[in-house]
Amino acid sequence: MSTPTPNKTWTKTAERPLRSAAKSLGVYLFAHFVGVAVPWRAVRQTDGKALLAYEHERLLALGAAGEHVPPVVAFDGDAMVTGDVGTTLEHLLHRIPDADRLPLMCAASADLAGFHARGHWHGGAQARNLTWNGHRFARIDFEERLYPGLPLETVQRYDALQLVFSLARFLEPLGPLAVQDVLNAYRDAWLLAKPDAPESQSLRSFLKPLLPRLRRIDRLASWSSRLDGSRELIRLRTVLEGMTSFVEDSPR
Questions:
Q1: Could you tell me the pTM of the whole model?
Q2: Residues 205, 183: Cα–Cα separation, whole Å
């Protein structure tokens, strides 16, 4: 049976800019700083064909499992054509009214928890790699090879951290309680799907030892008068305050 070609398609080729050594090192050092021991081979990108083949494999596997990912229309080793799955969450949050942002962010967080509870992981769970078509969320970009180099639970919690930090610019105006709401949405959806999961697998357990490391960044940056009042540091402080409340107030 043939699958109809979607009306809108995207083409990704093996001949595209890869992550530079400097950027790879930045990703590697940041991950290790916050306590996620990402292997160097997982972040260093040198082979465009291998990355494309890996993403193709993941899309097929996730699609076969019933997950919402772009359908693969064609793949020849050098290029991959996929169907469109909606507008990215990041783009939508710039366009929708302020009052609608928090509910959508919480829904995205809960959806990620459900994806994790079904045994999957993303590897690039930022808002730019999550889409919404008005009915459901979908995920794009699956190039990161974090698992099985890291335990599945670690990669899943790292996904959640990526999502929250990618939402920082939209959460900061709403305050720390909004950050806590997004984290609570993840926790509640996870517990609903996995009521008997041990505490060691919880987002709270993952964040608790990370908070002192992240606060260290805040303290170091506060020594600089230029950085102390920067938008990035204000956003970080809002996220940290919300995470702290989540860790202290979260049940279990």
A1: 0.93
A2: 13
